[in-house]
Design a protein that fits this description.
Thiol Ester Dehydrase, Chain A
C-alpha cells in the first residue's frame, strides 16, 4: 500500500532458481491460509504480499479482523518473503516475531506485506506491515518484525 515513509526495497538475489514455484507450491500446502481464505498476492525476491477478504467469522467482538488473524497473515507474508531467498531444498520456519497493532483492522480486506531486511545463511530478518482497506482507503493497522530460520535440506512435505 502506498505511503510516503516506506524506504526503497532492497535488491536481493534468490538462491533457488525456481523460487517463485517453490513459494507458490508451499503456500498452496498451507492449510491455515486456505481455512481463512487468504490469497497470495505479488511476490518478488525478498517481498511477499498476502490478501485476505473480510469474513464475519474472522472478527473479534467489535467486528474488526481479529488480531490473531492479522498476525497469521503477516507472519506468512514475511515468512514467504524470506523463503524467496532461501536455497533450493530448504524450508522456512518462524523463530519469533513482535507484532504491534496500530489501529483496528477494519476493512473490506487486509493486505499484509512482508519484506526481507537481512538474509543470512541460517537466519533471515524481516518486517511486515498490514493495511486494512475500506472504501478505497488504506489504514496501516499493524507492523511486525520477525526472525526466520532456514531449515537446510528440509524440503516441504
Amino acid at each position: 500500500m502506498p505511503h510516503t515513509a516506506r524506504p526503497a526495497r532492497h535488491m536481493f538475489e534468490p538462491r533457488d532458481p525456481d523460487w517463485e514455484s517453490s513459494v507458490r507450491q508451499s503456500f498452496a500446502r498451507q492449510n491455515v491460509m486456505r481455512l481463512i481464505g487468504a490469497e497470495l498476492g505479488v511476490i518478488s525476491p525478498g517481498h511477499c504480499e498476502i490478501r485476505l477478504p473480510f469474513r464475519d467469522d474472522l472478527t473479534q467482538q467489535n467486528g474488526y479482523f481479529h488480531a490473531g488473524i492479522t498476525g497469521t497473515i503477516v507472519d506468512s507474508a514475511a515468512g514467504y518473503a524470506g523463503y524467496t531467498l532461501m536455497p533450493k531444498g530448504s524450508d522456512v520456519l518462524t523463530v519469533e516475531y513482535k507484532l504491534n497493532l496500530l489501529a483496528p483492522a477494519d476493512g473490506e480486506f487486509l493486505v499484509a506485506e512482508g519484506q526481507v531486511l537481512k538474509s543470512g545463511r541460517n537466519l533471515v530478518i524481516t518486517r511486515g506491515e498490514v493495511y486494512a482497506i475500506k472504501n478505497g482507503k488504506a489504514t496501516h493497522c499493524a507492523t511486525m518484525q520477525q526472525t526466520l530460520m532456514t531449515m537446510h535440506a528440509k524440503e516441504s512435505k
